[in-house]
Amino acid sequence: MSVERSPVTVGLLHPGRMGAAVGRLAVRAGHRVLWCPGGRSAATADRADEAGLVRAADLGALTAEAGIVVSLCPPAAAEEVARQVAGTGFDGVFVEANAISPARVRRIADLFPRARVVDGCVIGPPPSDRAAARLYLSGAAGDTGPVAGLFAGGPLEAVPVDGGVGQASALKMAYGSFNKAASALAAVSHALADVYGVSDHLLAEARRMTHDHLATPGHLSGVAARAWRWAPEMEEAAATLAEAGLPDELALAAAAVFRRWDGDRDDFGIPVQDALHHLRAADG
């Protein structure tokens, strides 16, 4: 990826915790970062001021000055924010950096008749001197380069993803579907252990765990081979959770995943790629 480092004017929508952290790094790198205070909370204004962001009169004024506009907002608002930006006639680089599906980011790209759209995703905590994160970017190299240049040398590492718009978002969905679901699973497990008074034993077993499931996909061959036994176990877990008044949907979903491997029963030699393929719906 060719990284451009000349100072530019950037529009940031909107400076939440992640957005303010990203904006602060761009300011530190010598760029002018604009934001729109209209309709924003006092907490947002405080974050933006502390990060060194400059207030724009309105969205039209922001897009008239900015060569790059970065959208970092709640996922549900992503298309509306993009539609508002497109409505101003923006003709620079629009960075769709929200946690949304590849299909949604492609729909957003279609909203812009003049701007070039870069698909981005941030993985990691709000970047700072104490915490690094990665900004994955996909799109035309001539457009991703200037975006990467906003943060060169800082704790937000720009990483190119081959392919067009949608590829960075696909990575975010793949990573987030594990990371967020794992947090929900941990919460439900600890809640169930608390109901039965076995929390100490659960923690002891958890601390013996050394396997990182996401980092070692090779073990999934064994998971597929054992799945015929694990699906009923997860259904028992779901029943136990329901009896305790806890959410059982995650356990039932896991059982449904395992049942897609029914045909791989005890096939411990199955290649990982075949096991992954068998998770896809027949018409997928």
Structural class: alpha/beta
Shape: elongated
Distance separating the two termini: 33 Å
Task: Name the poorly predicted regions.
Answer: none
Biggest β-sheet: strands ordered side by side in the sheet: 3-2-1-4-5-6-7-8
Number of helices: 11
- From the alpha carbons, calculate the radius of gyration and give it in angstroms: 22 Å
Could you give a short account of the major beta sheet? Answer: 8 strands, mixed
Rounded mean pLDDT score:
95
**N to C succession of SSEs:** EHEHEHEHEHEEHEHHHHH
Could you estimate the helical fraction of the residues in percent?
A: 40-55%
List the helices and strands and how they pair.
Blueprint: E1 9-13, H1 17-28, E2 32-35, H2 42-51, E3 54-55, H3 59-65, E4 68-71, H4 78-87, E5 93-96, H5 102-110, E6 116-123, E7 133-138, H6 141-149, E8 156-160, H7 167-196, H8 199-208, H9 220-243, H10 249-259, H11 272-277
Parallel strand pairs: 1-2, 1-4, 2-3, 4-5, 5-6, 7-8
Antiparallel strand pairs: 6-7
Helix pairs in contact: 1-2, 4-5, 9-10
